[in-house]
Structures are given as C-alpha cells and as structure tokens.
Specification:
Layout lengths: L10 H13 L2 H10 L9 E5 L4 H12 L3 E5 L8 H9 L14 E3 L12 E3 L4 H24 L7 E5 L3 H12 L3 E5 L3 H9 L3 E2 L2 H4 L5 E4 L9 H4 L6 E5 L9 H7 L2 E6 L2 E5 L5 E5 L5 H4 L6 H20 L8 E2 L3 H9 L14 H7 L15
Parallel strand pairs: 1-2, 3-4, 4-13, 5-6, 5-8, 6-7, 8-9, 9-12
Antiparallel strand pairs: 10-11, 11-12
Helix pairs in contact: 1-3, 1-4, 2-3, 2-12, 3-4, 3-12, 5-6, 5-12, 12-13
Bound molecules: nicotinamide-adenine-dinucleotide and adenine.
Nicotinamide-adenine-dinucleotide (NAD) binds next to α5 and α6.
Length: about 375
C-alpha cells in the first residue's frame, strides 16, 4: 500500500472516531444511501487536498462508496489528525501523484474561489456551506482552539475580531457569549454597519491593539496584524488567525523583531518583545481552530461535504454542462443538502398549500427563494 502517515498503528482508534462521526454526518450518509447502489462516481479518480480530519475521512469514504478512486493529501501542516490519516491509509486510499484526465475540481474556501481559472464548482458560496460552516462552525471551533491552547478566561477580556464576514460574525458572537468585550475591524461599510448594529464597537486595528487581550483575524486578507500593532499590545496578548493561511498575521516580523521566544507546548509560542512584554502566538499564525483544536464539529462539516459530493457527481456525470469557469450548484441542491439534515434536529417543515404555491408562483417542491437571495 502506498501512503505517508505518522503512525499507522492509530488506524483502529481512527476507525472508532469515524464511526461516531458518521452518526453526526447525516448528509453524507444520505448520499451513500441515495447513490451507493448506482455508483455515479464509478471511473472518477478524485485527488483531494483538505485538512485530514475525522470529518474528512467520512467524506473520503463517501466518495469511495459512490464508486470513485480517491487519493488524498492534507492542506495544512498542523491540521492532520494522525488517527484519521492512519484509518484512511489502512483502507488503501493513497496519497496522490498528479493524475492525467482530471475533469474539474470543487473548491470549498472563500479565498480559494478567487484563484480558480479552470472549470470548477464553487462550493463555498452554496448557502449550506458559507452560511453554516463559516458562521456556526467557527462560532464553536474558534473558542475551542483558544481554550485548548491557553485555558484563558474570556469573560471581561477585550477581544478584537478583524473582519465581519461569515467567519467574523460567528467568532464575534462566540467571544461575546463568553462575556468578552468585542471590537470589530472592517474595510467594508456594510459589514461595519452590521457589526455596529449587532452591538460591537467598530474601530481600527491601530485603536484596538493597545486595548485588546485577544486578537482573531478572519479577513482572508494579508497584513492585518503588523509590527506596529505587536509593539503596543498589552502583556500576554493572545494572537490568532482563523481566516486564511499564515499571512493575516505578520509572523515574519514577530520572529525577526522579538528578543526571544519560548515554546510553551505545540502551537503555543510566547514571544518576548523589546519592551519586555509578551505575546502568545497560536498555531504560528495558521488556522487556530485546526491547529490548536480539531476544527469544526462533524455535523456542520456534513453540510460542506455533502455539497462537495454533489459537486463531484455533477462534474463527473454532466461534464459538458460545465464550460471553463466557476459554477454554482443549483438552488435545488442547496435545499436538498439542508433537507438532508433536518430529521436529525427533529425539524418539522411546513409545506406550501396549492393556493399558497399559486399565490407566490413557486412550485410546492421549491426552489423557494431566488438564487441570489442572501439569507
Ligand atoms: P468574507 O468575505 O465573508 O469576510 C471577510 C471580511 O473581511 C469581509 O467582510 C471583508 O470586508 C473583511 N476584510 C478584508 N480585508 C480587511 C482588512 N484589511 N481589515 C478588516 N476587515 C477586512 O469571508 P468569510 O466567509 O468570513 O471567510 C473569511 C476567511 O476565513 C477566508 O479566508 C476563508 O477561507 C476562511 N475560513 C476559515 C474557516 C476555518 O475553519 N478556519 C472556515 C471557513 C472559512
Ligand atoms: N475545516 C474546518 N473544520 C474542519 C474539519 N473538522 N475537517 C476538515 N476541514 C475543516
């Protein structure tokens, strides 16, 4: 078998956690039930590159159950869960070489969608991805990461959230729920207004840096926390990123200008500044929820990954419908993803009456809102 994992003996532990996660991923189980027999991905070779977590393992096994030949690699140096990688390697899924004959790809992240120049499906902007994974997922996994790393009491602390998009909204709400006093920074006047109307102070990083104890970047942009900000932060300020890659925080500046650094434990580094004050940098400026914790919970990843499976089926079985460019999944499929998760939450959906359907000019079976509706 061809694979590269840290410790293959962890496969049995990984398998137990995969089984637990399956019960929390009803969308993926629905895909297996609906398409397991017809195997629409038969003949497709799918090379995936995403955090190798337990949730990703359930995605990989769903793609395999639908007939695909899957190979996988991780996309982040800190996010691999060794028992998940071992369990998947033990089933014979290898790590990939570049393969000929790829028909297209499906992209999950907000920043990633800016870089697509080939036929692709933008999974990020499915409502059941960005309005759930980015928002509710980060609402739970941000604080999980900060707490596992530092055990800090958040109540009463001042926290800065840079960016008030889907991720920033979830992070700000979670920090506020713990009693942190949240300051938001934004470049977009609409998002800034949303933050103000939600009750947050909106300020610049220059204003906030000397006052804040916890920093979280969520912008998908670069150079959000820079040298001049590090220099004025209070003692033991916690600095973390849940947005994009390790460029949101200028880690290079910190490394070059700090007097010294002590590694407290994996992914927690305490830098001493020239002033003698300290800064706690989490996950070396990479994604704190995956570097210091285990990422989003299974249930919300089921939303994202059901979209991924649907995107792969669409690209493989209906490839001629996708000319060069970036495509969205149709609204009906977004609704199907949501529908697949309702039962587990014991949600009772109302059905349009024939009269209501005629009155609104919407079929009883949907789609219910226009594709551009923002939720
Ligand atoms: P978004 O576009 O909805 O939000 C980003 C916000 O940042 C926007 O409102 C934008 O105006 C603001 N912004 C940009 N530059 C800024 C600056 N210099 N200062 C202040 N604000 C600025 O995107 P999103 O869906 O919230 O995703 C944000 C990032 O999080 C992306 O990189 C995405 O890939 C990533 N993401 C991470 C996870 C995770 O699990 N860690 C999950 C989902 C998304
Ligand atoms: N992104 C955020 N959380 C994740 C998880 N648990 N698995 C894979 N990718 C993720």
């Amino acid at each position: 078998m061809v694979y590269k994992v840290a410790d293959i003996s962890l496969a049995a532990f990984g398998r137990k956690e995969i089984e637990l996660a399956e019960n929390e991923m009803p969308g993926l189980m629905y895909m297996r039930e609906k398409y397991g027999a017809s195997k629409p991905l038969k003949g497709a070779r799918i090379a995936g590159c995403l955090h190798m977590t337990i949730q990703t393992a359930v995605l990989i096994e769903t793609l395999s159950a639908l007939g695909a030949e899957v190979s996988w690699s991780s996309c982040n140096i800190f996010s691999t869960q060794d028992h998940a990688a071992a369990a998947i390697a033990a089933t014979g899924v290898p790590y990939p070489q570049y393969l000929a004959g790829i028909r297209g790809l499906s992209e999950e992240t907000t920043t990633g969608v800016h870089h697509l120049y080939r036929p692709a499906i933008n999974v990020n902007d499915s409502v059941t991805k960005s309005k759930f994974d980015n928002y509710y997922g980060c609402r739970e996994s941000l604080v999980d990461g900060i707490k596992r790393a530092t055990d800090v009491m958040l109540a009463g602390k001042v926290a800065v959230v840079a960016g008030f998009g889907d991720v920033g909204k979830g992070c700000a709400q979670s920090l506020a729920a713990y009693g942190a006093r949240v300051i938001v920074t934004e470049i977009d006047p609409i998002n800034a207004l949303q933050a103000a109307m939600a009750g947050y102070e909106v300020a610049t990083m220059e204003d906030a840096a000397p006052r804040a104890n916890v920093f979280v970047t969520t912008t998908g942009n670069r150079d959000i926390i820079r040298g001049e900000h590090f220099l004025v932060m209070p003692e033991d300020a916690i600095v973390s990123n849940i947005g994009h890659f390790d460029v949101e925080i200028d880690v290079a500046w910190l490394k070059a200008n700090a007097k010294s650094v002590v590694n407290i434990k994996p992914q927690v580094d305490r830098y001493t500044m020239p002033s003698g004050r300290h800064i706690l940098l989490l996950a070396e400026g990479r994604l704190v929820n995956l570097g210091c914790a285990t990422g989003h919970p299974s249930f919300v990843m089921s939303f994202s990954f059901t979209n991924q499976v649907l995107a792969q089926i669409a690209l493989w079985t209906n490839n001629s419908a996708f000319p060069l460019g970036v495509h969205m999944l149709p609204k009906e499929l977004d609704e199907e993803v949501a529908r697949a998760h309702l039962k587990q939450l014991n949600v009772k959906l109302t059905t349009l009456s024939n009269e209501q359907s005629k009155y609104l000019d919407i079929p009883v079976s949907g789609p219910y809102k226009p594709a551009h509706y923002r939720y």
